[in-house]
Structure formats: structure tokens, C-alpha cells
Amino acid sequence: MKLGDLADIVSSGPALHGEAIVAGITSDSRAVQPGFVFAALRGSKTDGMSFVANAVSRGAIAVIAPADADASTLTVPMFRAAEPRRALALAAARFYGRQPETMVAVTGTSGKTSVAAFVRQIWTHAGKPAASIGTTGVVAPGRAEYGSLTTPDPVELHRLLAELAAAGVTHAAMEASSHGLDQHRLDGVHLAAAAFTNLGRDHMDYHPTVESYHSAKMRLFTELMPRGGPAIIFADDPWSEATIAAARGAGLDVRTVGRKGGFLCLKRVEHERRRQRAEIEVDGVIHEIVLPLAGDFQIANAMVAAGLAMSTGIISATAMEALEHLQGAPGRLDLVGSTEAGAPVYVDYAHKPEALEHVLAAVRPFTTGRVVVVFGCGGDRDKGKRPIMGEIATRLADIVIITDDNPRSELPAAIREQILVAAPGAIEIGDRRRAIREAIAMLGAGDTLVIAGKGHEVGQTVGLDTHHFSDHEEARAALAESSR
Ligand SMILES: CC(=O)N[C@H]1[C@@H](OP(=O)(O)OP(=O)(O)OC[C@H]2O[C@@H](n3ccc(=O)[nH]c3=O)[C@H](O)[C@@H]2O)O[C@H](CO)[C@@H](O)[C@@H]1O[C@H](C)C(=O)N[C@@H](C)C(=O)N[C@H](CCC(=O)O)C(=O)O
Ligand SMILES: Nc1ncnc2c1ncn2[C@@H]1O[C@H](COP(=O)(O)OP(=O)(O)OP(=O)(O)O)[C@@H](O)[C@H]1O
Ligand SMILES: N[C@H](CCC[C@H](N)C(=O)O)C(=O)O
Ligand SMILES: [Mg+2]
């Protein structure tokens, strides 16, 4: 790519130097190498403009900067952009050049990771080389790696997409987080379809109101999807209607799924302990399927995933058949084992109110004894959700154990206290390992334990340190001990 190729991405800049070869693109001055274009972004902590001199000294040949940036001291060309983050994403897409031919993205407060994993599995079942990208990392044929963000930084994202395409991956499903959408991380991805799962309380430390949180998510439909493209929308959520309106307003082909769905309609569902039987109507035909996963919410996720797959060329019979082989994403209502008396122990990633509500409701029908829940809330994140989650746990579980979940820079006891004010009668055990052990020790026949909040995570962050910690490992060790 030449510098001149940036011309239609930025709003203004010098026409000179157009033939210079671009060696790379980054928004982090520390990653600049000779020949790179540096995007100076205004961030939540600092302003990239203050690192321009540093970027130039490392060899940057041009800078993408906000429209009002001061170029007076600059020794390399400056390209101005009304939205530098968007310019960075489009430039990255062009620089890396390739992406899997069929890309879809899913947004929503809960279910994104599960839907992305399910779409990958449906495509794979249909014989397509497929990948998924999100909170639990990248999964593709011969590849499974952890990533740090739900929606990667655009430069990393396009490097990855080009790598996947070069490796023969033709289909990829990715998660679109509200941060990612707000920060234009997905601009430049060629989307064939997009989906919405639901909206609940999340990230109220980042978005000022729930409406602004919803509109950040709506960028997926209103700005990133091509007109006329398919939008798969879960129909049974309080925010479904507003989402349908936004997608229709953007000229998309809205396809609803769920009990109120028109594209895929859930006619009947029967929950069993580890699976559920569902009747799903597609084009007037009822498909009876056995979904090998527990939880009402997994039916919702499976239908959204099937909607995405069917909107990207998979025939309905193949998609429905694939649902019978789905594996849950790691750490999503994940059965770790059972006590000798048969009480199941689940690890789940519910770290926000609606998720906790859904997961506790999901285990109730097959619990003849008590539902026990172990959970905490992360430090340096939305404080408002703490009492809400305390109330939900108290209402839906019989025994509530409040513990620590990544306290980060906060005082762990203070976080627990903020949950406990709405959870009278809850047991407080800060040490997560001990909390899990005590919970398993108290399980009797017919009881169910849900260890919520960390799911696939393998670390506990206290202060600036992250030590290895896995709910799966702890639960397995405690189960082994209890059976001795
Ligand atoms: C709050 C937030 O979302 N921050 C993201 C944002 O950083 P920022 O632009 O605000 O960064 P900043 O620190 O203010 O710096 C401004 C600019 O100066 C640059 N800089 C800084 C220092 C320096 O020496 N040189 C330099 O050039 C930085 O690279 C940056 O471009 O853009 C960065 C690049 O894309 C992200 O890595 C970073 O994610 C941080 C690490 C993060 O923790 N994000 C979380 C909250 C997040 O995005 N989560 C979502 C949702 C998860 C969920 O589903 O629940 C996700 O998609 O993962
Ligand atoms: N459709 C759904 N409705 C409500 N809750 C759900 C749904 N799907 C999953 N959950 C709950 O949310 C948790 C996280 O699910 P998942 O990882 O699929 O969502 P996500 O949107 O990717 O979340 P995150 O933004 O935290 O990455 C699950 O462990 C479960 O407790
Ligand atoms: N991406 C989410 C993950 C939260 C997981 C939970 N274990 C916590 O640490 O709060 C966040 O950063 O808000
Ligand atoms: Mg996720």
C-alpha cells in the first residue's frame, strides 16, 4: 500500500509523498517502526497527539490526526480525519487487504460469545472452513488462541482476518462489543449479516445512559451493515422493538427469531437436565430438534446463530441438524462435574445482572433441592450492578456465597459489602478458592451449584497482579477432594 492510497479514507492531507510505501499502521507510538503510519487517537486516558514526536522519531512517515490537530511542528505529512478511529480501521482494512469472504458480527449484552461459537460450528457442520473471534479468543481450523479484547483493536483485527483468509478460512463470525462499535474497531469489516441478542445493564461506567449504550450497539446496523443486508434480531427482548426499528430505518432486511420470531419461530420447548427439545418453525416447516445444552438462553443463542448461518447460504435443514451437535462456549453454563450424590457443579460467565438472572433461572427447573450460587463483582467496573446482582442472587438462589472476582485496584471487602447490602443472609467468603470448596462441601442430593462471573478466565486480578486462577480447576479439585 502507498501513502496515496489513504486519500479517500481521510478528509484532507498533502497530495505529495503519495508514492511512499506504507510498512505498517498503528495507533500506539511504541509500536511504530520505520515506514509506519501513526494514527494519533484521543483516548480515555491520554491523547495520541502527544506521542507524535515519539512516533516520528521511530520512523513514522505520516500521521492520521483529528481535524483540529496542530500540525505546525510536524516534519511528516499529516492527514486529517473527522473520525480518526474510523480512518485507522479503514486504513488497516486496506493495508492488510484480505478478509474471509463471509463475515458476520453479533452484538447484545449477553450471548455474543456463544452465538459466534455456534455460527462457527454450524458453518463447520456445513463443510465451510470457519472461524470465530471474541472474548474467548480466536478459534479456526487448527487454531485456538486467547485474545484480550472481545472486539480486537482494528489493526490486530485486520492482521488476523488477513491471516485467516490466507489460511483458507472463508467464513468468520465475530463479536461486536459496545466499546468496539463506539470506538470504530469494526469499521472496514465487510459484513454479510449482523445480529442482536438482547440488551441489559452493562458498562454503565463507559456509557452515560442505557439509551446511549443501545445506540452504540445500533451502529452495527445503522452504519456498518450494507443497505439491504440481513439483520437477525432476537424478538423476545424488551429492546427488540427499538432494535428492529433501528435496523429497518437503516434499510436492512430484518429477520426476527424467537418465540415472537417471523424468520425462525420457537413453537415449543421442553427442558431436560442437560438438553432441551425444541420445535422451531422455518418457512412453514416445523423442525424438532434436541439441543444438547441446558438453559433457555441457549435456545435463544442457537436460534440467532442459525439465523446468521441461514442468512449466509446455509440451508435450513443443515442449520437445524447442526444445532443438535452444538457445544457450549467454554465457561458458559459449563458442567464441570457432579458430587457423589449427583449434585451438578456449573461454571458460568454471568458477570452482569441479566446474565445472572438467566443462568439461575435456567438451573431451577432441574433442581429438586437448593440452588447454590458463588459470585462476586469485578473492581474498577460498573459499581451500580453490585446491589442489583445481590438482589437477583438472593431472589433466585437458596444459598448465596459472595466472593471476590478480579477486585483490581478496589478494596475487595468494599466490593463485597456493596453486593451484600442487597443480599441479606448471604455468606461472605472473600477467598474464591475457599468459597468454591465450602459451596461444594454443602451440596446435597438434588442441589445445583453455579459458580458465576469468571467463566473461561484463568486469572484473578488483585491490585496490579494477576495470579493464575480457574473456577474449573478449583471446582474439579474440590470435587475430587469431596469424593475421597
Ligand atoms: C476504555 C477502552 O476501551 N480503551 C481502549 C482504547 O484505548 P484508548 O484509546 O482509550 O487509550 P488511551 O490509553 O487513552 O491512549 C490514547 C492513545 O494514545 C496511544 N498511546 C499511548 C501511550 C503511548 O506511549 N503512546 C501512544 O501512542 C494509545 O495507543 C491510544 O491510541 O483503545 C485501545 C485500542 O483499541 C484499546 O486497547 C483500549 O482497550 C482497553 C485496554 C480496555 O480495557 N478495553 C475494555 C474496556 C474493552 O474494550 N472491553 C470491550 C467489551 C468487553 C465486554 O464485552 O464486556 C471489548 O471489546 O473487549
Ligand atoms: N441470550 C442470553 N440471554 C441472557 N443471558 C445469557 C444469554 N447468553 C448467555 N447468557 C449469560 O451470559 C453469560 C455470558 O455469555 P456469552 O459469553 O455468550 O455472552 P457475551 O455477550 O459474549 O458476554 P461478554 O460481553 O461478557 O463477553 C453466560 O455465561 C450466561 O450466564
Ligand atoms: N469484559 C468484561 C469481563 C468481566 C468479567 C468479570 N470476571 C470481571 O472481572 O468483572 C469486563 O471487563 O467488564
Ligand atoms: Mg463475549
Word description of this protein:
The chain has about 475 residues and is of the alpha/beta class. The chain folds into three domains: about 80 residues, MurE/MurF, N-terminal domain (Udp-n-acetylmuramoylalanyl-d-glutamate--2,6- Diaminopimelate Ligase, Chain: A, domain 1); about 230 residues, Mur-like, catalytic domain (UDP-N-acetylmuramoyl-L-alanine:D-glutamate ligase), CATH 3.40.1190; about 150 residues, Mur ligase, C-terminal domain (Protein-Tyrosine Phosphatase, Chain A). About 30% of the residues lie in helices and about 25% in strands. It is built from 14 helices and 23 strands. The strands form four sheets. The protein has an eleven-stranded mixed beta sheet with strand order 8-7-6-9-5-10-11-12-13-14-15, with helices on both faces. A six-stranded mixed beta sheet has the order 16-17-21-18-19-20, with helices on both faces. The longest helix has 15 residues. Magnesium ion (MG) binds next to helix 3. The site of ligand UAG has 19 residues, from helix 5. One of its GO terms (molecular function) is UDP-N-acetylmuramoylalanyl-D-glutamate-2,6-diaminopimelate ligase activity. This is UDP-N-acetylmuramoyl-L-alanyl-D-glutamate--2,6-diaminopimelate ligase.
